[in-house]
Specification:
The protein is an alpha/beta fold. The protein folds into two domains: 166 residues, Ribosomal Protein S5, domain 2 (2-Layer Sandwich); 315 residues, P-loop containing nucleotide triphosphate hydrolases (Rossmann fold, 3-Layer(aba) Sandwich), CATH 3.40.50. Helices cover 37% and strands 17% of the residues. The chain is built from 23 helices and 18 strands. Strands 11-14-17-10-18 form a five-stranded parallel beta sheet. Strand 8, helix 6 and strand 9 form a beta-alpha-beta unit. It is elongated, with a radius of gyration of 28 Å. The structure holds zinc ion (ZN). Zinc ion binds next to loops.
Length: 509
Amino acid sequence: MYSTIKTAILEGIHTRSIQVEVDISSGMPAFDMVGHLAPEVREGKERIKTALHSIGVILPAKRITVNLSPANIKKTGTGFDLPIAIAILQSLGVISKEACHGKMFIGELSLNGQILSVNGILPVVSDGVENQIFEYVIPKDNEGEGRLVSKAQVYAFCSLQEVINFLDGKPYKTEYKNIEEMHRGPEKDFSDVCGQKFIKRACEVAAAGMHNMLLIGAPGAGKTMIAERLAAILPPLSDEERLELSKIYSVCGLLSSKNALIQTRPFRSPHHTITQAGLTGGGAVPKPGEISLAHNGVLFLDELPEFQKKTLEILRQPMEEHKVHLVRSLGTVTYPANFLLLAAMNPCNCGYYPDMKKCRCSESGLRRYFDKVSQPLLDRIDICVEAPTLTYSEVAGKDKSESSKSIQKRVLECHQIQCERYKEERFFHNSHIPASRLEEFCHLGVKERHYMENIYLKLSLTARTYHKILRVARTIADLEQSNCIQIRHLKEAVCYRSADKKFWGGGSL
Ligand SMILES: [Zn+2]
Protein backbone atom coordinates (compact mmCIF):
# COMPACT_ATOMS: atom_id res chain seq x y z
CA MET A 1 0.00 0.00 0.00
CA TYR A 2 1.14 3.51 -0.78
CA SER A 3 1.17 6.43 1.66
CA THR A 4 2.56 9.93 1.87
CA ILE A 5 3.46 12.33 4.72
CA LYS A 6 4.61 15.94 4.77
CA THR A 7 7.83 17.11 6.35
CA ALA A 8 10.43 19.82 5.67
CA ILE A 9 14.14 20.47 5.29
CA LEU A 10 16.18 23.54 6.28
CA GLU A 11 17.68 25.88 3.73
CA GLY A 12 19.50 28.66 5.56
CA ILE A 13 16.90 30.02 7.96
CA HIS A 14 14.14 29.01 5.58
CA THR A 15 12.69 25.62 4.77
CA ARG A 16 11.44 23.64 1.84
CA SER A 17 8.68 21.09 2.11
CA ILE A 18 9.48 17.44 1.47
CA GLN A 19 7.13 14.53 0.77
CA VAL A 20 7.83 11.19 2.38
CA GLU A 21 6.44 8.39 0.20
CA VAL A 22 6.25 4.80 1.36
CA ASP A 23 5.20 1.82 -0.68
CA ILE A 24 4.79 -1.66 0.78
CA SER A 25 4.25 -4.36 -1.80
CA SER A 26 4.80 -8.07 -2.07
CA GLY A 27 8.15 -9.29 -3.31
CA MET A 28 11.53 -10.15 -1.87
CA PRO A 29 11.65 -8.77 1.71
CA ALA A 30 13.67 -5.53 1.63
CA PHE A 31 13.79 -2.03 3.13
CA ASP A 32 15.10 0.58 0.70
CA MET A 33 15.42 4.30 1.19
CA VAL A 34 16.05 6.59 -1.77
CA GLY A 35 15.95 10.30 -2.60
CA HIS A 36 19.47 11.78 -2.42
CA LEU A 37 20.09 11.01 1.25
CA ALA A 38 22.96 12.13 3.46
CA PRO A 39 24.46 9.38 5.68
CA GLU A 40 22.56 10.46 8.81
CA VAL A 41 19.26 10.16 6.91
CA ARG A 42 20.17 6.74 5.51
CA GLU A 43 21.15 5.51 8.98
CA GLY A 44 17.63 6.44 10.06
CA LYS A 45 16.53 3.12 8.58
CA GLU A 46 17.96 1.22 11.55
CA ARG A 47 16.55 3.68 14.08
CA ILE A 48 13.09 3.51 12.53
CA LYS A 49 13.02 -0.31 12.33
CA THR A 50 14.13 -0.67 15.96
CA ALA A 51 11.82 2.08 17.22
CA LEU A 52 8.83 0.44 15.49
CA HIS A 53 9.86 -2.90 16.93
CA SER A 54 10.04 -1.38 20.42
CA ILE A 55 6.36 -0.41 20.26
CA GLY A 56 5.38 -3.83 18.98
CA VAL A 57 5.16 -3.18 15.25
CA ILE A 58 6.96 -5.90 13.33
CA LEU A 59 7.61 -5.04 9.70
CA PRO A 60 6.07 -7.61 7.35
CA ALA A 61 8.27 -9.74 5.11
CA LYS A 62 7.52 -7.52 2.13
CA ARG A 63 9.26 -5.02 -0.06
CA ILE A 64 9.28 -1.59 1.67
CA THR A 65 10.40 1.40 -0.39
CA VAL A 66 10.82 4.88 1.11
CA ASN A 67 11.32 7.88 -1.14
CA LEU A 68 11.97 11.47 -0.04
CA SER A 69 10.96 13.81 -2.82
CA PRO A 70 11.91 15.99 -4.62
CA ALA A 71 14.92 13.78 -5.29
CA ASN A 72 17.17 16.56 -6.56
CA ILE A 73 17.60 18.13 -3.07
CA LYS A 74 20.09 16.52 -0.73
CA LYS A 75 18.33 15.42 2.46
CA THR A 76 20.33 16.20 5.59
CA GLY A 77 19.52 16.19 9.30
CA THR A 78 17.73 13.73 11.54
CA GLY A 79 14.20 15.09 11.42
CA PHE A 80 13.02 12.54 8.82
CA ASP A 81 12.84 9.58 11.25
CA LEU A 82 9.39 10.44 12.61
CA PRO A 83 7.68 11.22 9.27
CA ILE A 84 9.07 8.03 7.72
CA ALA A 85 7.87 5.94 10.66
CA ILE A 86 4.41 7.54 10.43
CA ALA A 87 4.26 6.91 6.68
CA ILE A 88 5.15 3.24 7.24
CA LEU A 89 2.49 2.92 9.94
CA GLN A 90 -0.02 4.45 7.58
CA SER A 91 0.95 2.02 4.83
CA LEU A 92 0.52 -0.84 7.26
CA GLY A 93 -2.95 0.44 8.16
CA VAL A 94 -2.00 1.05 11.83
CA ILE A 95 -3.08 4.67 11.52
CA SER A 96 -5.57 6.19 9.13
CA LYS A 97 -4.83 8.47 6.24
CA GLU A 98 -7.39 11.01 7.47
CA ALA A 99 -5.62 11.38 10.83
CA CYS A 100 -2.41 12.48 9.10
CA HIS A 101 -4.09 14.73 6.58
CA GLY A 102 -2.89 18.37 6.64
CA LYS A 103 -0.27 17.69 9.29
CA MET A 104 3.48 18.08 9.04
CA PHE A 105 5.73 15.72 11.02
CA ILE A 106 9.32 16.22 12.10
CA GLY A 107 11.52 14.56 14.71
CA GLU A 108 14.35 12.12 15.38
CA LEU A 109 13.67 8.67 16.84
CA SER A 110 15.72 6.84 19.40
CA LEU A 111 15.89 3.05 19.41
CA ASN A 112 13.30 2.77 22.21
CA GLY A 113 10.76 4.89 20.33
CA GLN A 114 11.41 8.23 22.07
CA ILE A 115 11.21 11.38 19.96
CA LEU A 116 14.34 13.53 20.18
CA SER A 117 14.60 17.25 19.50
CA VAL A 118 15.80 18.56 16.14
CA ASN A 119 17.17 21.92 15.05
CA GLY A 120 15.18 24.45 13.11
CA ILE A 121 11.58 23.80 14.25
CA LEU A 122 10.81 27.53 14.34
CA PRO A 123 11.60 28.12 10.63
CA VAL A 124 9.76 24.88 9.74
CA VAL A 125 6.56 26.02 11.43
CA SER A 126 6.85 29.65 10.44
CA ASP A 127 7.42 28.89 6.71
CA GLY A 128 4.89 26.06 6.77
CA VAL A 129 2.12 28.40 7.94
CA GLU A 130 2.87 30.65 4.97
CA ASN A 131 2.35 27.60 2.77
CA GLN A 132 -1.03 26.93 4.38
CA ILE A 133 0.02 24.06 6.65
CA PHE A 134 -1.36 24.71 10.12
CA GLU A 135 -0.84 21.50 12.14
CA TYR A 136 2.52 20.18 13.32
CA VAL A 137 3.62 17.06 15.14
CA ILE A 138 7.01 17.83 16.70
CA PRO A 139 9.33 16.68 19.52
CA LYS A 140 8.31 17.73 23.05
CA ASP A 141 11.64 19.50 23.59
CA ASN A 142 10.91 21.81 20.65
CA GLU A 143 7.43 22.77 21.82
CA GLY A 144 8.41 26.28 22.94
CA GLU A 145 9.71 27.38 19.56
CA GLY A 146 6.83 25.74 17.69
CA ARG A 147 4.39 27.75 19.76
CA LEU A 148 5.98 31.06 18.81
CA VAL A 149 4.02 30.98 15.57
CA SER A 150 0.54 31.99 16.67
CA LYS A 151 -1.36 30.68 13.65
CA ALA A 152 0.03 27.15 13.99
CA GLN A 153 -1.48 24.31 16.00
CA VAL A 154 1.42 22.43 17.52
CA TYR A 155 1.25 18.89 18.95
CA ALA A 156 4.43 17.97 20.82
CA PHE A 157 5.20 14.43 21.98
CA CYS A 158 7.89 12.48 23.80
CA SER A 159 7.38 9.13 22.12
CA LEU A 160 6.16 7.45 18.95
CA GLN A 161 3.50 5.58 20.94
CA GLU A 162 2.01 8.92 22.09
CA VAL A 163 1.83 10.10 18.48
CA ILE A 164 0.02 6.89 17.46
CA ASN A 165 -2.45 7.28 20.32
CA PHE A 166 -3.08 10.88 19.33
CA LEU A 167 -3.62 10.02 15.66
CA ASP A 168 -5.93 7.25 16.85
CA GLY A 169 -8.21 9.84 18.42
CA LYS A 170 -6.86 10.33 21.96
CA PRO A 171 -7.30 14.03 22.86
CA TYR A 172 -4.13 16.12 22.98
CA LYS A 173 -3.14 17.54 26.33
CA THR A 174 -0.18 19.71 27.14
CA GLU A 175 1.11 21.18 30.34
CA TYR A 176 3.40 23.56 28.57
CA LYS A 177 3.92 26.89 30.26
CA ASN A 178 6.00 29.61 28.79
CA ILE A 179 8.29 30.63 31.62
CA GLU A 180 9.60 34.14 31.21
CA GLU A 181 13.27 34.27 32.01
CA MET A 182 13.22 35.36 35.59
CA HIS A 183 16.82 34.91 36.58
CA ARG A 184 18.77 36.85 34.04
CA GLY A 185 21.41 37.79 36.55
CA PRO A 186 22.41 41.36 37.23
CA GLU A 187 22.18 43.55 34.11
CA LYS A 188 25.53 44.89 33.01
CA ASP A 189 25.15 48.64 33.09
CA PHE A 190 27.31 51.48 31.82
CA SER A 191 27.02 53.15 35.21
CA ASP A 192 29.40 50.47 36.57
CA VAL A 193 32.25 51.63 34.32
CA CYS A 194 34.57 54.09 36.08
CA GLY A 195 35.76 57.08 34.07
CA GLN A 196 36.32 56.53 30.33
CA LYS A 197 33.85 59.29 29.45
CA PHE A 198 35.26 59.66 25.94
CA ILE A 199 34.95 55.94 25.22
CA LYS A 200 31.41 55.80 26.53
CA ARG A 201 30.47 58.68 24.28
CA ALA A 202 32.13 56.88 21.32
CA CYS A 203 30.02 53.80 22.15
CA GLU A 204 26.90 55.93 22.14
CA VAL A 205 27.75 57.33 18.70
CA ALA A 206 28.62 53.84 17.41
CA ALA A 207 25.31 52.42 18.65
CA ALA A 208 23.33 55.40 17.36
CA GLY A 209 24.56 55.09 13.78
CA MET A 210 25.54 51.39 13.84
CA HIS A 211 29.17 52.35 13.21
CA ASN A 212 31.80 49.64 13.56
CA MET A 213 34.32 50.51 16.23
CA LEU A 214 37.89 49.65 17.23
CA LEU A 215 39.01 50.15 20.81
CA ILE A 216 42.72 50.32 21.53
CA GLY A 217 43.95 50.30 25.10
CA ALA A 218 46.35 48.83 27.61
CA PRO A 219 45.27 45.73 29.53
CA GLY A 220 43.05 46.80 32.41
CA ALA A 221 41.64 49.88 30.73
CA GLY A 222 38.20 48.25 30.82
CA LYS A 223 37.81 47.39 27.12
CA THR A 224 35.92 44.15 27.72
CA MET A 225 33.76 45.70 30.39
CA ILE A 226 32.73 48.45 27.98
CA ALA A 227 32.16 46.00 25.11
CA GLU A 228 29.83 43.84 27.20
CA ARG A 229 27.62 46.86 27.76
CA LEU A 230 27.31 48.00 24.17
CA ALA A 231 24.45 45.70 23.12
CA ALA A 232 22.29 47.00 25.97
CA ILE A 233 22.29 50.58 24.65
CA LEU A 234 21.02 49.54 21.23
CA PRO A 235 17.25 50.03 20.82
CA PRO A 236 15.04 47.10 21.99
CA LEU A 237 14.39 44.44 19.34
CA SER A 238 11.21 44.76 17.30
CA ASP A 239 8.86 41.74 17.11
CA GLU A 240 10.05 41.00 13.60
CA GLU A 241 13.71 41.14 14.65
CA ARG A 242 13.03 38.83 17.59
CA LEU A 243 11.47 36.22 15.37
CA GLU A 244 14.24 36.42 12.77
CA LEU A 245 16.91 36.13 15.46
CA SER A 246 15.10 33.23 17.13
CA LYS A 247 15.04 31.41 13.79
CA ILE A 248 18.83 31.62 13.56
CA TYR A 249 19.18 30.25 17.11
CA SER A 250 16.61 27.55 16.29
CA VAL A 251 18.67 26.36 13.31
CA CYS A 252 21.67 26.12 15.66
CA GLY A 253 19.62 24.29 18.29
CA LEU A 254 20.30 27.03 20.82
CA LEU A 255 16.77 27.91 21.91
CA SER A 256 15.71 26.98 25.43
CA SER A 257 12.64 24.77 25.61
CA LYS A 258 10.88 26.95 28.16
CA ASN A 259 11.42 30.37 26.67
CA ALA A 260 12.16 30.07 23.02
CA LEU A 261 11.97 33.69 21.96
CA ILE A 262 15.23 35.65 21.93
CA GLN A 263 14.33 38.87 23.73
CA THR A 264 17.56 40.84 23.91
CA ARG A 265 20.16 41.94 21.39
CA PRO A 266 22.90 39.34 21.16
CA PHE A 267 26.46 39.98 22.29
CA ARG A 268 28.83 37.39 20.81
CA SER A 269 32.45 37.26 21.76
CA PRO A 270 34.23 34.43 19.92
CA HIS A 271 37.75 33.48 21.02
CA HIS A 272 40.59 34.38 18.65
CA THR A 273 41.27 30.70 17.91
CA ILE A 274 37.91 30.42 16.12
CA THR A 275 37.92 28.84 12.67
CA GLN A 276 36.49 30.36 9.52
CA ALA A 277 33.53 27.99 9.64
CA GLY A 278 32.93 28.87 13.29
CA LEU A 279 32.82 32.55 12.45
CA THR A 280 30.81 32.62 9.24
CA GLY A 281 29.02 29.28 9.43
CA GLY A 282 29.39 26.00 7.58
CA GLY A 283 29.81 22.32 8.29
CA ALA A 284 28.46 19.18 6.63
CA VAL A 285 24.97 20.06 7.82
CA PRO A 286 25.29 23.84 7.40
CA LYS A 287 24.89 25.89 10.57
CA PRO A 288 25.06 29.65 11.12
CA GLY A 289 28.32 30.96 12.58
CA GLU A 290 29.09 33.63 15.18
CA ILE A 291 28.43 36.51 12.78
CA SER A 292 24.86 35.29 12.29
CA LEU A 293 24.38 34.61 15.99
CA ALA A 294 25.39 38.28 16.46
CA HIS A 295 22.72 39.37 13.94
CA ASN A 296 21.00 42.60 15.07
CA GLY A 297 23.50 42.84 17.93
CA VAL A 298 27.18 43.15 18.70
CA LEU A 299 30.07 40.97 17.51
CA PHE A 300 33.03 41.57 19.80
CA LEU A 301 36.46 40.53 18.59
CA ASP A 302 38.84 40.92 21.52
CA GLU A 303 42.59 40.76 20.86
CA LEU A 304 41.99 41.52 17.19
CA PRO A 305 45.62 40.95 16.02
CA GLU A 306 45.52 37.42 17.47
CA PHE A 307 42.83 36.30 15.03
CA GLN A 308 44.06 34.52 11.92
CA LYS A 309 44.32 37.06 9.14
CA LYS A 310 42.47 34.71 6.81
CA THR A 311 39.63 34.31 9.29
CA LEU A 312 39.17 38.07 9.47
CA GLU A 313 39.40 38.45 5.68
CA ILE A 314 36.17 36.54 5.21
CA LEU A 315 34.30 39.12 7.27
CA ARG A 316 34.54 41.59 4.40
CA GLN A 317 31.66 40.31 2.28
CA PRO A 318 29.17 39.87 5.16
CA MET A 319 30.05 43.32 6.50
CA GLU A 320 29.16 44.84 3.12
CA GLU A 321 26.01 42.84 2.48
CA HIS A 322 24.78 42.16 6.03
CA LYS A 323 24.33 38.52 5.17
CA VAL A 324 26.67 35.64 4.50
CA HIS A 325 26.57 33.28 1.54
CA LEU A 326 28.09 29.86 2.10
CA VAL A 327 28.88 28.03 -1.09
CA ARG A 328 28.12 24.34 -0.70
CA SER A 329 28.58 21.53 -3.15
CA LEU A 330 24.79 21.58 -3.62
CA GLY A 331 24.13 25.29 -3.96
CA THR A 332 24.42 28.33 -1.74
CA VAL A 333 23.05 28.79 1.77
CA THR A 334 22.43 32.34 3.00
CA TYR A 335 22.22 33.47 6.62
CA PRO A 336 21.51 36.99 7.90
CA ALA A 337 24.55 38.71 9.46
CA ASN A 338 23.87 42.35 10.21
CA PHE A 339 25.99 43.10 13.25
CA LEU A 340 27.83 45.96 14.84
CA LEU A 341 31.50 45.01 14.93
CA LEU A 342 33.39 46.04 18.03
CA ALA A 343 37.05 45.09 17.96
CA ALA A 344 39.56 45.61 20.74
CA MET A 345 43.32 45.34 20.91
CA ASN A 346 46.30 46.25 23.06
CA PRO A 347 48.45 49.10 21.78
CA CYS A 348 51.38 46.66 21.30
CA ASN A 349 52.53 43.15 22.20
CA CYS A 350 53.45 44.06 25.76
CA GLY A 351 50.53 46.44 26.11
CA TYR A 352 52.28 49.67 27.12
CA TYR A 353 53.07 51.52 23.88
CA PRO A 354 53.42 54.53 23.56
CA ASP A 355 54.73 54.70 27.16
CA MET A 356 58.35 54.11 26.17
CA LYS A 357 59.46 53.74 29.80
CA LYS A 358 57.42 50.57 30.11
CA CYS A 359 57.10 49.28 26.51
CA ARG A 360 59.59 46.54 25.72
CA CYS A 361 58.68 46.18 22.04
CA SER A 362 61.13 46.91 19.23
CA GLU A 363 60.12 49.17 16.39
CA SER A 364 59.87 46.26 13.97
CA GLY A 365 57.89 44.35 16.59
CA LEU A 366 55.42 47.21 16.78
CA ARG A 367 55.11 47.32 12.99
CA ARG A 368 54.51 43.58 12.81
CA TYR A 369 51.88 43.83 15.52
CA PHE A 370 49.85 46.47 13.70
CA ASP A 371 50.30 44.79 10.34
CA LYS A 372 48.46 41.78 11.70
CA VAL A 373 45.22 43.73 11.40
CA SER A 374 44.14 43.55 7.79
CA GLN A 375 43.68 46.77 5.90
CA PRO A 376 40.34 45.86 4.28
CA LEU A 377 38.92 45.15 7.73
CA LEU A 378 40.18 48.49 9.05
CA ASP A 379 38.54 50.13 6.06
CA ARG A 380 35.19 49.00 7.40
CA ILE A 381 35.68 50.52 10.84
CA ASP A 382 34.27 54.04 11.28
CA ILE A 383 35.30 54.84 14.82
CA CYS A 384 38.76 54.15 16.20
CA VAL A 385 39.46 55.27 19.75
CA GLU A 386 42.05 54.80 22.44
CA ALA A 387 41.03 53.88 25.97
CA PRO A 388 43.47 55.56 28.36
CA THR A 389 44.60 53.86 31.56
CA LEU A 390 42.48 55.09 34.43
CA THR A 391 43.75 57.81 36.73
CA TYR A 392 43.52 57.45 40.50
CA SER A 393 40.63 59.88 40.81
CA GLU A 394 38.66 57.90 38.21
CA VAL A 395 39.23 54.58 39.96
CA ALA A 396 38.48 56.00 43.40
CA GLY A 397 35.69 58.25 42.11
CA LYS A 398 32.40 57.54 43.76
CA ASP A 399 29.97 59.36 41.48
CA LYS A 400 27.99 56.97 39.35
CA SER A 401 28.05 57.75 35.68
CA GLU A 402 25.07 57.69 33.34
CA SER A 403 23.02 54.49 33.19
CA SER A 404 22.61 52.37 30.05
CA LYS A 405 18.87 53.09 30.07
CA SER A 406 19.28 56.82 29.66
CA ILE A 407 21.96 56.41 26.94
CA GLN A 408 19.67 53.95 25.16
CA LYS A 409 16.91 56.58 25.10
CA ARG A 410 19.05 58.94 23.00
CA VAL A 411 20.21 56.08 20.77
CA LEU A 412 16.62 55.04 20.18
CA GLU A 413 15.61 58.57 19.16
CA CYS A 414 18.54 58.66 16.78
CA HIS A 415 17.49 55.33 15.23
CA GLN A 416 13.97 56.70 14.75
CA ILE A 417 15.33 59.74 12.88
CA GLN A 418 17.30 57.44 10.58
CA CYS A 419 14.35 55.11 10.12
CA GLU A 420 12.27 58.06 8.89
CA ARG A 421 15.02 59.52 6.72
CA TYR A 422 15.93 56.23 5.00
CA LYS A 423 12.45 54.74 4.71
CA GLU A 424 12.65 54.81 0.90
CA GLU A 425 16.23 53.53 0.82
CA ARG A 426 17.82 50.12 0.88
CA PHE A 427 19.88 50.94 3.96
CA PHE A 428 18.76 51.90 7.48
CA HIS A 429 21.67 53.57 9.24
CA ASN A 430 24.11 56.41 8.76
CA SER A 431 27.06 54.01 8.66
CA HIS A 432 25.65 52.46 5.48
CA ILE A 433 25.16 55.64 3.40
CA PRO A 434 26.84 54.84 0.08
CA ALA A 435 29.63 57.22 -0.94
CA SER A 436 27.59 58.39 -3.92
CA ARG A 437 24.75 59.60 -1.67
CA LEU A 438 26.86 61.40 0.96
CA GLU A 439 26.36 64.81 -0.61
CA GLU A 440 22.62 64.37 -0.29
CA PHE A 441 22.46 63.11 3.31
CA CYS A 442 25.56 64.75 4.81
CA HIS A 443 25.40 68.13 3.15
CA LEU A 444 27.88 70.69 4.52
CA GLY A 445 27.43 74.47 4.64
CA VAL A 446 30.13 76.90 3.45
CA LYS A 447 31.79 77.26 6.88
CA GLU A 448 31.77 73.51 7.44
CA ARG A 449 33.17 72.82 4.02
CA HIS A 450 36.00 75.24 4.68
CA TYR A 451 36.72 73.55 8.02
CA MET A 452 36.86 70.11 6.44
CA GLU A 453 39.13 71.33 3.67
CA ASN A 454 41.60 72.49 6.29
CA ILE A 455 41.39 69.21 8.16
CA TYR A 456 41.76 67.23 4.95
CA LEU A 457 45.06 68.95 4.19
CA LYS A 458 46.33 69.12 7.77
CA LEU A 459 45.77 65.45 8.54
CA SER A 460 46.38 64.32 4.93
CA LEU A 461 43.14 62.35 4.94
CA THR A 462 42.14 59.86 2.28
CA ALA A 463 38.78 60.03 0.52
CA ARG A 464 37.67 56.98 2.49
CA THR A 465 38.51 58.55 5.84
CA TYR A 466 36.80 61.77 4.79
CA HIS A 467 33.61 59.83 4.03
CA LYS A 468 33.74 58.08 7.39
CA ILE A 469 34.04 61.42 9.18
CA LEU A 470 30.95 62.66 7.33
CA ARG A 471 28.90 59.58 8.25
CA VAL A 472 29.90 59.76 11.91
CA ALA A 473 29.25 63.53 11.97
CA ARG A 474 25.76 62.81 10.57
CA THR A 475 25.11 60.51 13.54
CA ILE A 476 26.43 63.04 16.04
CA ALA A 477 24.16 65.71 14.54
CA ASP A 478 21.22 63.28 14.71
CA LEU A 479 21.96 62.60 18.38
CA GLU A 480 21.44 66.34 18.91
CA GLN A 481 18.41 66.20 16.63
CA SER A 482 20.11 68.78 14.44
CA ASN A 483 19.26 68.72 10.76
CA CYS A 484 22.46 70.43 9.66
CA ILE A 485 25.90 69.05 10.32
CA GLN A 486 27.81 71.75 12.19
CA ILE A 487 31.47 72.34 12.89
CA ARG A 488 31.24 70.90 16.42
CA HIS A 489 29.80 67.68 15.00
CA LEU A 490 32.65 67.43 12.51
CA LYS A 491 35.19 68.17 15.24
CA GLU A 492 33.93 65.31 17.36
CA ALA A 493 33.91 62.96 14.36
CA VAL A 494 37.52 63.88 13.60
CA CYS A 495 38.42 62.97 17.21
CA TYR A 496 37.27 59.42 16.51
CA ARG A 497 40.05 59.12 13.97
CA SER A 498 42.92 60.26 16.17
CA ALA A 499 43.89 56.80 17.41
CA ASP A 500 44.34 55.24 14.00
CA LYS A 501 46.47 58.20 12.96
CA LYS A 502 48.71 57.50 15.92
CA PHE A 503 48.97 53.74 15.40
CA TRP A 504 48.70 53.27 11.64
CA GLY A 505 50.16 56.61 10.57
CA GLY A 506 46.89 58.26 9.60
CA GLY A 507 46.43 57.54 5.95
CA SER A 508 45.51 53.96 6.56
CA LEU A 509 42.04 54.15 8.04
ZN1 LIG B 1 55.15 47.18 23.88
